Design the sequence.
């Protein structure tokens, strides 16, 4: 009987805990980070504060709206990295919808988000029509309400489900609006997805609560610097657009999936050196490069995780900018010298002539380059987005629920059928791919020590002549890694002289 009472008491306490969660759409004591889609929108940090005096005035404040302070009103300070006002006439500015202003809790579960009459960014003042968006967090499936007060749009809860958010099973509600907007609420984390009439959408990337709790990604600021380790792999999608005068005729003419492998690394008190392999998947083009730099470097890893989810560090992508000269595009990192000056490291080279502007997005692995040919009126726009990151052979990525947007998929997602002879070996090793479906794909072969450090690398296009010379390796156990398109095999090999 005593056990039954304990079970009953536990159920009651757990039930009260769930009931006590109020589906509040924004945490009022935390920094909430959102990642944007498509790539022409900015990501943002939302500082939720219960009192204006607690707002931390940081660099690059985009907009701030202040009203009288009472218990049920909350103010949001939106922060984003600086984007030049001259860039494409400011069209890359975030369309933040309702999250960057003021929230009022009208009644339990019913929230109004207010826009200001105007707000100022740099030297510009933007005039808005005051409006109020309404979210009813306690509505059930098929319940509707008026979503936008000044022009009655209808919001409806269309689904309720359970998803793992940051490694914790959570309840979610999916809300759609007749304007094309969509909102996904989490019982634990508030708003985890919202869109703006189908033009832009934002997904929850992370939440930071003082002093030590961090859930998901901690969004980096302009002073964070990064490092890379041997064995790290970065997968990118690169898009390239060309348009005529005034942006007319813009079209995506090239989208390329490619990856970088960090092969070797050396860092000293006076500089650094990386060797990098890069692979353009669609064109089967393998190549390599060496990246060097000088300076008294300080390396920082600035990502934290909570909620029981393993999340590894990822990297920004940077570019340089100049006027009327060739410039280097791409790049996968940044370091900072002892005086605080910022430097870029470049892993991919491309050149534009003319007037060039580059924009660093505040979320991971995405960069926008805008190039205008002076006097011609033509424009070139390219973007590069990090879509996946490997460490120790395991893919890391966003912790966004599958009901909101598709998960990141690894490039190497299947086992390659591979035979090695002889094994043990003392000079030449013959490799045989027994699955001939992949005979048109280029082959990347590496020999690694048991700690995973690459010792040899080869590129092959002939599947019938795959050999590796191990005669110069000391006797011992090694790893042989073979990659073909989306397939990979790792085998142990013994070298015996």
Sequence:
């Amino acid at each position: 009987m005593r056990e039954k009472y304990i079970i009953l008491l536990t159920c009651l306490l757990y039930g009260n805990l769930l009931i006590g969660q109020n589906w509040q759409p924004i945490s009022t004591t935390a920094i909430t980070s959102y990642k944007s889609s498509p790539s022409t929108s900015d990501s943002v940090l939302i500082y939720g504060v219960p009192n204006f005096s607690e707002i931390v005035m940081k660099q690059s404040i985009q907009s701030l709206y202040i009203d009288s302070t009472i218990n049920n009103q909350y103010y949001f300070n939106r922060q984003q990295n600086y984007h030049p006002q001259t860039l494409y006439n400011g069209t890359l500015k975030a369309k933040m919808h309702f999250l960057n202003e003021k929230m009022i809790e009208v009644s339990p579960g019913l929230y109004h988000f207010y826009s200001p009459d105007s707000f100022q960014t740099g030297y510009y003042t933007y005039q808005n029509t005051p409006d109020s968006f309404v979210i009813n967090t306690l509505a059930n499936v098929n319940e509707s309400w008026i979503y936008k007060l000044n022009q009655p749009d209808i919001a409806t809860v269309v689904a309720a489900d359970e998803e793992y958010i940051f490694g914790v099973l959570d309840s979610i509600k999916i809300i759609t609006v007749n304007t094309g907007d969509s909102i996904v609420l989490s019982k634990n984390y508030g708003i985890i997805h919202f869109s703006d009439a189908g033009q832009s959408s934002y997904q929850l990337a992370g939440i930071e609560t003082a002093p030590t709790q961090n859930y998901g990604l901690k969004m980096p600021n302009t002073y964070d610097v990064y490092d890379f380790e041997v064995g790290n792999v970065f997968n990118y999608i690169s898009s390239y657009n060309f348009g005529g005068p005034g942006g007319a005729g813009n079209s995506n003419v090239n989208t390329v999936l490619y990856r970088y492998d960090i092969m070797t690394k050396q860092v000293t008190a006076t500089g650094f050196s990386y060797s990098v392999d890069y692979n353009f998947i669609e064109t089967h083009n393998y190549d390599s490069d060496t990246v060097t730099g000088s300076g008294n470097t300080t390396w920082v890893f600035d990502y934290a995780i909570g909620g029981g989810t393993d999340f590894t560090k990822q990297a920004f992508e940077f570019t340089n900018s100049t006027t009327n000269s060739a410039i280097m595009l791409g790049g996968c990192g940044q370091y900072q010298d002892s005086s605080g000056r910022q430097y870029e490291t470049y892993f991919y080279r491309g050149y534009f002539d003319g007037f060039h502007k580059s924009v660093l997005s505040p979320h991971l692995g995405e960069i926008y380059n805008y190039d205008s040919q002076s006097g011609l009126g033509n424009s070139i726009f390219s973007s590069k987005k990090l879509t996946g990151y490997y460490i120790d052979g395991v893919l890391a990525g966003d912790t966004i629920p599958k009901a909101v947007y598709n998960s990141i998929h690894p490039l190497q997602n299947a086992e390659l059928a591979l035979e090695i002879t002889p094994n043990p070996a003392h000079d030449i090793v013959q490799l045989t791919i027994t699955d001939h479906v992949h005979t048109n794909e280029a082959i990347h072969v590496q020999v690694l020590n048991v700690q995973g450090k690459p010792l040899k690398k080869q590129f092959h296009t002939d599947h019938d002549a795959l050999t590796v010379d191990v005669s110069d390796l000391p006797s011992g156990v090694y790893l042989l890694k073979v990659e073909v398109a989306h397939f990979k095999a790792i085998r142990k090999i013994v070298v015996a002289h």
